[in-house]
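Sample intake — Maltose/maltodextrin transport system permease protein
Collected from: Nonomuraea monospora
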Amino acid sequence: MALDVRQAAPAEVRERFRRETTTAFVVSRIAVLAVAAAILLYAVPPLVATGSWVALGLLAAVSAVIAWLYLTRRHIPAKYLVPGTVFLVAFQVFPVVYTVTTAFTNFGDGHRGDKAAAVTAIETGSVRQAPGSPEYTLSVALRGEELVFLLVDPATKQVSLGTPDGLSPLTGAQVGVTGKVLAAPGLTVLKAPEAAARGQEITALAVPTAGGVIKANGLSRAVEGKAALVYDAACDCVRGNGDTWTADESQGYFVNARGEHLAQGWQVNVGLDNFARVLTNPTISGHFAGVLGWNLLFALASVIGCFTLGMGVALALHHPRMRGTRFYRIVLILPYAMPAFAMLLVWRDMFNRDFGLINQLLGAEIDWLGQTGTARLGVILVNIWLGFPYMFLVTTGALQAIPRELTEAASIDGATPFKAFRRVTLPLLLVALTPLLISAFAFNFNNYNAIALTTDGGPFPADSPQVGGTDLLITYTFRLAFGAGGAQFGFAAAISVFIFAIVAVISAVAFRRTRKQEEVYA
């Protein structure tokens, strides 16, 4: 019968073990409760201000459960599982669910808010100064966290406070020789650099008046004007400039009779439109298969190249007759220790046709990154150079776990070194490293930096500037969704779902084959 070490230990050892365990538990409990309380205090005010009562109730319920769990001595396993579960939901489950739900919307530039916000943006954005309308000297200030205007009428020197609710007189303000307000009671006047940093907020702020609205014209001047476009709730449309734009709830736009829409819209659910666009739009679907094929080739070549080179180096240094292994390991780990983004930029310059180091060493003038074939070869070689030290490290660790008796027994049975490696060492390595190889494939399938920092997806053909010879799906998606047309988060999320499905299917098949392999060598 096995004897518990704590029972066999002297009394003072058991007492010290009990004290250390109790101290560690108390410290961890205090840390978890402190983090939970800090998150609660930080999140409650903005949730209350925005009226997010469901999120506030969920936060309160989770905080109550955590407090109850860590203030009692029961449920010890749950005390260790709950933090991990919370972080899993926050950093894994929630981003995936949010991405999938976003894929069914038109969320993006021009569709970030609701319909009311869109109407406000359309009306305030169409404000034009009418002839003879008032002009003011503008100062920008903060009333608490709210941005406000301090307006000085040059003719009467009267100071007014401008807010989204309207215009009101302001007393006690100190006006400088330039006509701008220098100080005002209860307000914090922003200096020029501070106001410039909040330029978008200043431009968006509109102060309603009886004759129209007051808007900023730069950082020192404000003018009163009228909106050229006005929303009419009776017809659910926008009128102005001799035209009418009717609300299209399915697309989140105001559209006129000619099919033209206003730039500002609102966020709506569009169903499968984003997915259908990927499959039916000839500009996108025409290149999708080619980009996918190169993407698979790039990921496979990177993983196989890194694994082969890393394993070869690890086997060489694992040989019992090898000397100076510590020095070689330090040298070989350098590419992995250096910042990847910096090394990618260095390699990009090394491939330069005119002054790159590679052409200078070869005495050639090869346009490495200007031709599709050489550019693809170049990015694969760079990725292998950056990734093989990782495979070298994990293969070295796996080789340490393989008993030398197995290879010695194979050699006694007459197997050549190559046959012993192929029949004994390699299968055991693959059993241990296949999950890492699958994760490396998933990483390289979405390796945005390797392409963006070396070729930026190029070279680009003259007839198709949207897709380049080295574009992966992730870089192609980024250019389509965040190019000159503005950010289209819903469309980008839809393509991300496609990429996730492709990687998930390949990974599932690979893991299934891995389990069969483990059963053979178990």
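Post-analysis note: Confidence is low (pLDDT under 50) at residues 1-6.
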